Amino acid sequence: MTAQRYQAIFDWFRARPAALRALGYAQKISVLGVYLVYGAVLAVTLWQRSGQFWRVLAVPAAVYVLGTLLRAAINRPRPYEALDFTPLFPKDTKGQSMPSRHCFSAAAIMAAAFTVWVPLGVAACLLAAVVAVTRVLTGVHYPSDVLAGLAFGAGAAVIGFLL
Prior knowledge:
Elements (H helix, E strand, L loop, with lengths): L2 H12 L2 H32 L4 H22 L4 H4 L18 H16 L1 H20 L5 H20 L1
Helix pairs in contact: 2-5, 2-6, 3-5, 3-7, 5-6, 5-7, 6-7
């Protein structure tokens, strides 16, 4: 995406304060929702499938660590750094844009949720999509960052659950 595209998105939201507030809420609620789903996944696993509890805990944790190391190694500048604009909501983190940590975490949690109870997996999938879209719309990630995050998180988690 170009600076002009981000600016067009920002202008659209700034001209519609209710939409801007909704975007801010969507960004926060979707992230919180992913963590609530993960809490539910852990609770259901502990209650009904206690033998899988450590696996459901360890696989997303391993994906988080591996993804964090990967993004530190890539150290891609964030769109607002590279294209010199201010994101819709204040953020001053430098680099480590690829892959999106929010997205790979959400995708790993989504994979864990699908192994426990499909409706939780569907909920996590929808929340992960909202997380991805809001990360781009607010200007803190490129579309490729969130797509890479979702692919890495889901792929690494699936491999982890198959092992």
